[in-house]
Design goal:
By secondary structure, this protein is of the alpha+beta class. Among the domains are: about 5-115, Immunoglobulin-like (Sandwich); about 245-290, Oligo-1,6-glucosidase, domain 2, CATH 3.90.400; about 500-594, Immunoglobulin-like. Helices cover about 25% and strands about 25% of the residues. Strands 1, 2, 3, 4, 5, 6, 7, 8 and 9 form a 9-stranded antiparallel beta sheet that branches. An 8-stranded parallel beta sheet has the order 17-16-15-14-11-10-19-18. It has a 5-stranded antiparallel beta sheet with strand order 20-21-22-29-25. Strand 3 (about 35-40) and strand 4 form a beta hairpin. Helix 6 packs parallel to helix 7 (about 330-340), helix 8 packs antiparallel against helix 9 (about 385-400) and helix 12 (about 430-440) packs parallel to helix 13. The protein is globular, with a radius of gyration of 26 Å. The relative contact order is 0.09.
């Protein structure tokens, strides 16, 4: 037994409070070492430790096995130890004192009170959403009267300074299209006054850039979106500002004597821009000075900005740019103030790495799920055609934070910061279809980057920011139909929106992967064959009730159920017989209970 491989702490993500007296605990151990794992627990102020729970193995990442179980608490206080059995016949205890064969040498893990764990209060609607990202200047030109003088042809290959004339009226005009696509959340890239086309360098956070419209246009957008049961989320660029922002201009003029000097991270004086002697967004991007949100005056200014647009325009939340570089106390206060006005507002952060500290329920409701994206792109592109590897990446992701937060996170395949997904798939439409199917079946909010649904291509900025293809003759209608089909299925089956997750088929080196989404309304299995040849397989049973048969729903490609006999299992009511099926090459399907 390698004691050093045992990982647990009485704090997230190893402990997650589920409400109603339920606590989920996670234990990691060296892969292949633990045969069985249990928890012995009780009230930390009583001698009794009669609570028992079995931990089930939920996956492996190639290094560790992950075991998880649910404890039912009689009070908010908890003490507990793990009892483990190894494959080589050892038995012992794992506690704060480490691994021991002697129960008297243990020291219990303690949770002083579950009140120390923030309760989940994210917006209920977010887990059901389908998100569509609009890069405003490039999406649709609804009002040529507000076009900038330097507007380029809509179908051009854009440069870094190109303007195409897209605006908020264009988004309003596209609402019927988005509704037909199944979209319920519209995320707009920044819309405030800024010198660039992308607007991530704001100079006035209280003014909508005239190129995009005005307050009345935004109010019309939110009102019409709400009438269609859609939510509107704005991009909050609060980590940094543009060089023309009034406070930074004052620092440039007055240096150390400026009353705004503590709004920024200035290294020395006088302030110079080229090269910058102050902290910036990214790698010394002088035009985007970083804001010091730990400064009370700076924080108060941007807290007012965040609440102003909730009050005045009726928006439904914020996507926070570079959220992992922002002051945590600022994020907590932003959440409190925004929720005081709009209790169901959604706050999601751009974070490119595992983000558990931001997903405990006190700062963000979700994040941009780049670890999920990285795993999906690698597997479906063929770079890592290994279902066991994919299972490991997904296991780390879906056990790395509370499940509600991950179901409320944005599963993106492309964005304004990345190459188009079809480009990354080498132009292979079948791979792009498989990825879209995987996106809509996985836990999390599917985020569609404008134009991906009609087959737009392009490498990184500026190619990934071309004008939206509205000409029907240039759209991929087969791909568009798939996105609409996936949206309808996600709405039809609660398991795809709110269900639990575990891998069902993940053999080493296999290009076929299957996941199980569990829900009280009925379980759903998603199967994805990325190989260039058809496959026959027997999926394990145990996820159907004995009185249920199976229906196959094709997502892309083809599939066929070869055997589906109902065989009642005495006592348990669970159907244990395998399900035989054939999958076509580069195909995906759902299995649902009938």
């Amino acid at each position: 037994m390698q004691a050093a491989s045992l990982l647990h702490a009485p704090w997230p993500p190893y402990v997650q409070y589920e409400g109603s007296g339920g606590l989920r605990v996670l234990l990691k151990a060296k892969q292949g070492e633990i045969a069985a794992a249990y928890v012995v627990y009780g009230d930390r102020y009583k001698d009794d430790m009669s609570g028992r729970a079995t931990l089930g193995r939920v996956g492996s990442d190639g290094i560790h096995d992950y075991f998880m179980g649910r404890l039912t608490l009689s009070s908010g206080r908890l003490k507990y130890v793990f009892y483990l059995e190894t494959h080589d016949g050892q038995e012992g205890w794992f506690s704060e004192a480490g691994w021991s064969h002697d129960p008297w040498s243990t020291r219990v893990f303690q949770m002083p009170h579950v009140a120390a764990l923030p309760a989940w209060d994210g917006p209920d609607w977010a887990q059901d959403a389908v998100c569509y990202q609009v890069f405003v200047d490039r999406f649709r030109n609804g009002n040529p009267g507000n076009d900038p003088p330097s507007v380029s042809d809509w179908c051009c290959n854009p440069g870094l300074k190109t303007r195409l004339g897209g605006d908020l009226q264009g988004v309003i005009d596209a609402l019927p299209y988005l509704e037909d696509l199944g979209v319920s959340m519209i995320y707009l890239t920044p819309i405030f006054l800024a010198p660039s086309a992308h607007k991530y360098d704001p100079v006035d956070y209280y003014e909508i850039d005239p190129e995009f419209g005005d307050l009345d246009t935004l109010r019309a957008l939110t009102a019409q979106a709400h009438a269609r049961n859609m939510y509107v989320v704005l991009d909050g660029v609060f980590n940094h500002c543009g060089a023309g922002f009034f406070a930074f201009q004052d620092v440039l003029r007055n240096g150390e004597a400026s009353s705004y000097r503590d709004w920024f991270y200035v290294h020395d004086y006088p302030v110079r821009m080229y090269p910058p002697n102050y902290e910036t967004f990214g790698a010394a991007i002088a035009e985007m000075p970083k804001l010091r949100l730990s400064n009370p005056q700076t924080a108060e200014y941007f807290l007012d900005v965040a609440t102003y647009w909730i009050r005045e325009a009726g928006i439904d939340g914020w996507r926070l740019d570079v959220a992992n570089e922002m002051d945590l106390d600022f994020l907590r206060e932003l959440r409190r103030r925004v929720r005081a006005i709009h209790p169901q507002a959604y706050i999601v952060g751009e974070i490119w790495h595992p983000a558990e500290p931001w997903l405990r329920g006190d700062t963000l409701d979700g994040v941009t799920a780049y670890p999920w994206r990285d795993a999906a792109l690698a597997f479906f592109s063929g770079w890592r055609s290994d279902a066991a590897w994919l299972d490991g990446q997904l296991t780390k992701h879906y056990t790395g934070a509370r499940s509600e937060a991950l179901r409320s996170s944005l599963n993106l395949l492309g964005s304004h910061d990345t190459p188009r997904v079809l480009e990354l798939m080498g132009g292979d439409r079948n791979k792009a279809k498989l990825l879209a199917a995987f996106q809509f079946v996985s836990p999390g909010i599917p985020q569609i980057y404008y134009g991906d649904e009609v087959g737009m291509r392009g490498w990184s900025d500026p190619e990934c920011r071309r004008g939206m293809v509205w000409d029907p003759n240039r759209q991929d209608h087969e791909l568009l139909s798939l996105y609409k089909h996936l949206s309808k299925l996600r709405k039809q089956y609660p398991a795809l929106r709110r269900g639990g997750f575990r891998s069902l088929w993940h053999a080493q080196g296999d290009p076929l992967y299957a996941m199980l989404r569990t829900h009280e309304s009925g379980n759903v299995v998603g199967i994805f064959n990325t190989a260039w040849h058809e496959r026959e397989l027997e999926l394990p049973g145990g996820w159907l009730r004995s009185d249920e048969s199976v229906e196959m729903i094709i997502l892309t490609g083809w599939g066929h159920l070869m055997q589906d006999e109902r065989q009642k299992t005495e006592g348990s009511g669970i159907r244990r017989t395998p399900i035989s099926l054939r999958m076509g090459p580069q195909s995906a399907c759902l299995l649902v209970a009938k």
